[in-house]
Amino acid sequence: MTQIMSEKIIxxxxxxxLHNRNKELRLxxxxxxxxxxxxEYIVRPQLLSQYDSLFGELEIGIQIKTLKAAELARRVELLxxxxxxxxxxxxxxxxxxxxxxxxxxxxYHKRIHEVYKSTEDKQQIHSTKNQNNPTDAELPKLYRAxxxxxxxxxxxxxxxxxxxxxxxxxxxxxxxxxxxxSLYLLICNDNEQNSQNTQNTYVDSISEEIKLQNEIKVLExxxxxxxxxxxxLKSEEPFxxxxxxxxxxxxENHRQTLNNDLFKKCAEIKQYQLLMxxxxxxxxxxxxxxxxxxxxxxxxEFTNSTYFSGx
Length: 311
Hints:
The protein is mostly helical and about 300 residues long. The protein contains ten helices and no strands.
Protein backbone atom coordinates (compact mmCIF):
# COMPACT_ATOMS: atom_id res chain seq x y z
CA MET A 1 0.00 0.00 0.00
CA THR A 2 2.83 2.37 0.93
CA GLN A 3 4.64 1.52 -2.31
CA ILE A 4 1.57 2.36 -4.41
CA MET A 5 1.09 5.69 -2.62
CA SER A 6 4.76 6.59 -3.08
CA GLU A 7 4.52 5.83 -6.76
CA LYS A 8 1.47 8.09 -7.02
CA ILE A 9 3.30 10.87 -5.21
CA ILE A 10 6.33 10.55 -7.52
CA UNK A 11 4.20 10.97 -10.61
CA UNK A 12 3.99 14.61 -11.69
CA UNK A 13 0.55 16.20 -12.09
CA UNK A 14 1.91 17.85 -15.26
CA UNK A 15 2.46 14.56 -17.07
CA UNK A 16 -1.12 14.18 -18.25
CA UNK A 17 -1.14 17.75 -19.49
CA LEU A 18 2.15 17.24 -21.34
CA HIS A 19 0.98 13.95 -22.84
CA ASN A 20 -2.23 15.60 -24.01
CA ARG A 21 -0.33 18.50 -25.55
CA ASN A 22 2.03 16.08 -27.27
CA LYS A 23 -0.90 14.14 -28.69
CA GLU A 24 -2.68 17.33 -29.72
CA LEU A 25 0.36 18.55 -31.68
CA ARG A 26 0.80 15.20 -33.42
CA LEU A 27 -2.82 15.18 -34.47
CA UNK A 28 -2.50 18.74 -35.76
CA UNK A 29 0.56 17.85 -37.86
CA UNK A 30 -1.19 14.72 -39.12
CA UNK A 31 -4.18 16.83 -40.11
CA UNK A 32 -1.99 19.24 -42.09
CA UNK A 33 -0.23 16.37 -43.86
CA UNK A 34 -3.59 14.84 -44.69
CA UNK A 35 -4.76 18.12 -46.19
CA UNK A 36 -1.48 18.53 -48.07
CA UNK A 37 -1.89 15.06 -49.54
CA UNK A 38 -5.47 15.78 -50.55
CA UNK A 39 -4.55 19.06 -52.26
CA GLU A 40 -1.49 17.72 -54.06
CA TYR A 41 -2.78 14.36 -55.28
CA ILE A 42 -6.51 14.87 -55.65
CA VAL A 43 -7.37 18.55 -56.00
CA ARG A 44 -4.37 19.70 -58.06
CA PRO A 45 -4.82 17.19 -60.92
CA GLN A 46 -8.52 18.01 -61.07
CA LEU A 47 -7.92 21.76 -61.22
CA LEU A 48 -5.16 21.47 -63.82
CA SER A 49 -7.35 19.26 -65.96
CA GLN A 50 -10.21 21.73 -65.66
CA TYR A 51 -7.94 24.68 -66.48
CA ASP A 52 -6.45 22.86 -69.46
CA SER A 53 -9.88 22.04 -70.86
CA LEU A 54 -10.79 25.73 -70.69
CA PHE A 55 -7.56 27.47 -71.64
CA GLY A 56 -5.02 24.84 -72.66
CA GLU A 57 -4.93 25.62 -76.37
CA LEU A 58 -4.65 29.36 -75.75
CA GLU A 59 -1.84 28.93 -73.20
CA ILE A 60 0.18 26.69 -75.52
CA GLY A 61 -0.48 29.03 -78.45
CA ILE A 62 0.88 31.97 -76.44
CA GLN A 63 4.01 30.03 -75.56
CA ILE A 64 4.61 29.09 -79.20
CA LYS A 65 4.18 32.69 -80.35
CA THR A 66 6.37 33.96 -77.49
CA LEU A 67 9.14 31.63 -78.56
CA LYS A 68 8.91 32.70 -82.21
CA ALA A 69 8.86 36.38 -81.26
CA ALA A 70 11.94 35.96 -79.07
CA GLU A 71 13.88 34.23 -81.84
CA LEU A 72 12.94 36.89 -84.40
CA ALA A 73 13.87 39.65 -81.96
CA ARG A 74 17.32 38.09 -81.54
CA ARG A 75 17.83 37.87 -85.32
CA VAL A 76 16.81 41.53 -85.74
CA GLU A 77 19.11 42.55 -82.89
CA LEU A 78 22.21 40.86 -84.34
CA LEU A 79 21.60 41.96 -87.91
CA UNK A 80 20.97 45.54 -86.75
CA UNK A 81 24.28 45.55 -84.88
CA UNK A 82 26.08 44.36 -88.01
CA UNK A 83 24.40 47.01 -90.11
CA UNK A 84 25.12 49.81 -87.60
CA UNK A 85 28.78 48.86 -87.73
CA UNK A 86 28.77 49.42 -91.48
CA UNK A 87 28.91 45.78 -92.50
CA UNK A 88 27.14 44.73 -95.68
CA UNK A 89 24.39 42.21 -94.97
CA UNK A 90 25.26 39.65 -97.61
CA UNK A 91 23.33 36.41 -97.94
CA UNK A 92 26.27 34.59 -96.41
CA UNK A 93 26.33 36.89 -93.37
CA UNK A 94 22.55 36.63 -92.93
CA UNK A 95 22.80 32.83 -93.05
CA UNK A 96 25.56 32.86 -90.45
CA UNK A 97 23.50 35.05 -88.12
CA UNK A 98 20.46 32.81 -88.54
CA UNK A 99 22.56 29.72 -87.88
CA UNK A 100 24.00 31.34 -84.75
CA UNK A 101 20.50 32.18 -83.44
CA UNK A 102 19.27 28.67 -84.21
CA UNK A 103 22.10 27.16 -82.17
CA UNK A 104 21.72 29.76 -79.40
CA UNK A 105 18.03 29.04 -78.94
CA UNK A 106 18.48 25.30 -79.31
CA UNK A 107 20.90 25.29 -76.38
CA TYR A 108 18.58 27.52 -74.38
CA HIS A 109 15.65 25.18 -75.01
CA LYS A 110 17.72 22.18 -73.97
CA ARG A 111 18.70 23.80 -70.68
CA ILE A 112 15.09 24.71 -69.89
CA HIS A 113 13.87 21.28 -70.91
CA GLU A 114 16.42 19.51 -68.70
CA VAL A 115 15.52 21.62 -65.67
CA TYR A 116 11.79 20.90 -65.91
CA LYS A 117 12.29 17.28 -66.91
CA SER A 118 14.19 16.53 -63.70
CA THR A 119 11.62 17.96 -61.26
CA GLU A 120 7.85 17.78 -60.78
CA ASP A 121 7.58 21.11 -58.95
CA LYS A 122 9.81 23.96 -60.03
CA GLN A 123 9.46 25.47 -56.54
CA GLN A 124 11.55 22.54 -55.29
CA ILE A 125 14.47 23.38 -57.62
CA HIS A 126 15.98 26.11 -55.45
CA SER A 127 15.64 24.23 -52.17
CA THR A 128 16.97 20.99 -53.70
CA LYS A 129 20.09 22.65 -55.07
CA ASN A 130 20.84 24.35 -51.75
CA GLN A 131 20.79 21.30 -49.50
CA ASN A 132 23.89 21.14 -47.31
CA ASN A 133 25.92 18.15 -46.14
CA PRO A 134 24.06 17.65 -42.82
CA THR A 135 20.82 17.45 -44.77
CA ASP A 136 22.29 14.89 -47.15
CA ALA A 137 23.28 12.74 -44.19
CA GLU A 138 20.06 13.11 -42.18
CA LEU A 139 17.61 12.63 -45.03
CA PRO A 140 18.38 8.98 -45.91
CA LYS A 141 18.63 8.05 -42.24
CA LEU A 142 15.14 9.32 -41.44
CA TYR A 143 13.78 7.96 -44.70
CA ARG A 144 15.05 4.45 -43.94
CA ALA A 145 13.41 4.56 -40.50
CA UNK A 146 10.09 5.66 -42.03
CA UNK A 147 10.22 3.00 -44.75
CA UNK A 148 10.98 0.36 -42.15
CA UNK A 149 7.78 1.27 -40.29
CA UNK A 150 5.67 1.58 -43.42
CA UNK A 151 7.05 -1.16 -45.64
CA UNK A 152 4.27 -3.17 -47.35
CA UNK A 153 5.75 -6.45 -46.12
CA UNK A 154 5.08 -5.56 -42.47
CA UNK A 155 2.27 -2.99 -42.68
CA UNK A 156 -1.35 -3.43 -43.69
CA UNK A 157 -1.91 -1.36 -46.83
CA UNK A 158 -4.69 0.85 -45.52
CA UNK A 159 -5.59 4.25 -46.92
CA UNK A 160 -3.35 5.83 -44.27
CA UNK A 161 -0.48 3.58 -45.33
CA UNK A 162 -0.82 4.53 -48.98
CA UNK A 163 -1.06 8.22 -48.10
CA UNK A 164 2.06 8.37 -45.92
CA UNK A 165 3.99 5.99 -48.15
CA UNK A 166 3.41 8.34 -51.10
CA UNK A 167 4.32 11.40 -49.04
CA UNK A 168 7.54 9.72 -47.88
CA UNK A 169 8.55 8.71 -51.42
CA UNK A 170 7.93 12.19 -52.82
CA UNK A 171 9.66 13.94 -49.92
CA UNK A 172 12.74 11.73 -50.32
CA UNK A 173 12.82 12.15 -54.11
CA UNK A 174 12.62 15.95 -53.78
CA UNK A 175 15.03 16.02 -50.81
CA UNK A 176 12.38 17.69 -48.69
CA UNK A 177 13.96 17.28 -45.26
CA UNK A 178 11.22 19.19 -43.44
CA UNK A 179 8.52 16.85 -44.71
CA UNK A 180 10.66 13.81 -43.87
CA UNK A 181 11.16 15.12 -40.33
CA SER A 182 7.43 15.63 -39.85
CA LEU A 183 6.68 12.12 -41.08
CA TYR A 184 9.38 10.70 -38.84
CA LEU A 185 7.93 12.46 -35.78
CA LEU A 186 4.50 11.04 -36.53
CA ILE A 187 5.37 7.54 -37.66
CA CYS A 188 8.53 6.59 -35.80
CA ASN A 189 8.77 8.67 -32.62
CA ASP A 190 5.09 8.13 -31.88
CA ASN A 191 5.49 4.37 -31.95
CA GLU A 192 8.68 4.47 -29.90
CA GLN A 193 7.04 6.69 -27.30
CA ASN A 194 4.01 4.42 -26.98
CA SER A 195 6.15 1.32 -26.51
CA GLN A 196 8.27 3.02 -23.84
CA ASN A 197 5.19 4.24 -21.98
CA THR A 198 3.74 0.74 -21.77
CA GLN A 199 7.01 -0.86 -20.63
CA ASN A 200 7.99 1.78 -18.07
CA THR A 201 4.85 2.76 -16.21
CA TYR A 202 6.64 4.33 -13.26
CA VAL A 203 9.67 6.03 -14.77
CA ASP A 204 11.11 9.07 -13.08
CA SER A 205 8.46 11.76 -13.64
CA ILE A 206 10.94 14.65 -13.79
CA SER A 207 12.96 13.00 -16.57
CA GLU A 208 9.78 12.21 -18.45
CA GLU A 209 8.59 15.81 -18.10
CA ILE A 210 11.84 17.10 -19.57
CA LYS A 211 11.63 14.61 -22.42
CA LEU A 212 8.04 15.53 -23.21
CA GLN A 213 8.76 19.25 -23.03
CA ASN A 214 11.60 18.83 -25.52
CA GLU A 215 9.40 16.77 -27.83
CA ILE A 216 6.67 19.38 -27.61
CA LYS A 217 9.09 22.13 -28.62
CA VAL A 218 10.14 20.13 -31.68
CA LEU A 219 6.53 19.37 -32.56
CA GLU A 220 5.51 23.01 -32.22
CA UNK A 221 8.28 24.07 -34.59
CA UNK A 222 7.29 21.40 -37.12
CA UNK A 223 3.62 22.33 -36.83
CA UNK A 224 4.38 25.99 -37.49
CA UNK A 225 6.52 25.14 -40.51
CA UNK A 226 3.99 22.73 -42.00
CA UNK A 227 1.18 25.24 -41.44
CA UNK A 228 3.17 27.95 -43.27
CA UNK A 229 3.88 25.63 -46.18
CA UNK A 230 0.24 24.61 -46.42
CA UNK A 231 -0.87 28.24 -46.35
CA UNK A 232 1.64 29.10 -49.07
CA LEU A 233 0.47 26.17 -51.19
CA LYS A 234 -3.15 27.34 -50.98
CA SER A 235 -2.15 30.83 -52.10
CA GLU A 236 -0.51 29.50 -55.28
CA GLU A 237 -2.08 28.44 -58.55
CA PRO A 238 -4.07 26.42 -59.30
CA PHE A 239 -5.56 26.48 -55.78
CA UNK A 240 -5.81 30.28 -55.72
CA UNK A 241 -8.12 30.22 -58.75
CA UNK A 242 -10.25 27.24 -57.73
CA UNK A 243 -13.35 29.35 -57.07
CA UNK A 244 -12.73 31.44 -60.17
CA UNK A 245 -12.92 28.37 -62.36
CA UNK A 246 -16.54 27.98 -61.25
CA UNK A 247 -17.33 31.59 -62.15
CA UNK A 248 -18.47 31.94 -65.80
CA UNK A 249 -17.69 35.67 -65.84
CA UNK A 250 -14.12 35.11 -64.62
CA UNK A 251 -13.65 32.30 -67.15
CA GLU A 252 -14.80 34.55 -69.98
CA ASN A 253 -12.64 37.47 -68.79
CA HIS A 254 -9.58 35.24 -68.46
CA ARG A 255 -10.14 33.76 -71.91
CA GLN A 256 -10.34 37.29 -73.30
CA THR A 257 -7.11 38.21 -71.51
CA LEU A 258 -5.35 35.22 -73.04
CA ASN A 259 -6.75 36.04 -76.47
CA ASN A 260 -5.42 39.58 -76.11
CA ASP A 261 -2.00 38.22 -75.12
CA LEU A 262 -2.04 35.93 -78.13
CA PHE A 263 -3.01 38.80 -80.42
CA LYS A 264 -0.16 40.94 -79.04
CA LYS A 265 2.35 38.17 -79.66
CA CYS A 266 1.10 37.73 -83.24
CA ALA A 267 1.42 41.48 -83.81
CA GLU A 268 4.91 41.39 -82.31
CA ILE A 269 5.91 38.61 -84.69
CA LYS A 270 4.60 40.53 -87.70
CA GLN A 271 6.57 43.59 -86.60
CA TYR A 272 9.80 41.60 -86.35
CA GLN A 273 9.09 39.94 -89.70
CA LEU A 274 8.80 43.37 -91.31
CA LEU A 275 12.08 44.44 -89.72
CA MET A 276 13.74 41.25 -90.98
CA UNK A 277 12.41 41.99 -94.46
CA UNK A 278 13.86 45.51 -94.32
CA UNK A 279 17.23 44.23 -93.14
CA UNK A 280 17.58 41.29 -95.51
CA UNK A 281 15.65 42.59 -98.52
CA UNK A 282 13.57 39.43 -98.64
CA UNK A 283 10.22 38.54 -97.11
CA UNK A 284 10.92 36.71 -93.88
CA UNK A 285 9.06 33.63 -92.70
CA UNK A 286 9.93 31.44 -89.76
CA UNK A 287 11.53 28.29 -91.07
CA UNK A 288 9.70 25.12 -90.10
CA UNK A 289 9.80 22.92 -93.16
CA UNK A 290 13.50 22.01 -93.30
CA UNK A 291 13.95 20.84 -89.74
CA UNK A 292 14.48 17.34 -88.43
CA UNK A 293 11.66 15.53 -86.57
CA UNK A 294 13.45 16.26 -83.28
CA UNK A 295 13.66 19.96 -84.12
CA UNK A 296 10.04 20.03 -85.24
CA UNK A 297 8.95 18.59 -81.89
CA UNK A 298 11.27 20.69 -79.78
CA UNK A 299 9.07 23.78 -79.66
CA UNK A 300 6.21 21.63 -78.40
CA GLU A 301 8.44 20.06 -75.74
CA PHE A 302 9.53 23.51 -74.59
CA THR A 303 6.02 24.89 -74.39
CA ASN A 304 4.72 21.81 -72.62
CA SER A 305 7.46 21.96 -69.98
CA THR A 306 7.01 25.67 -69.42
CA TYR A 307 3.22 25.54 -69.50
CA PHE A 308 2.58 22.57 -67.27
CA SER A 309 5.24 23.40 -64.70
CA GLY A 310 4.23 27.06 -64.48
CA UNK A 311 1.01 26.39 -62.59
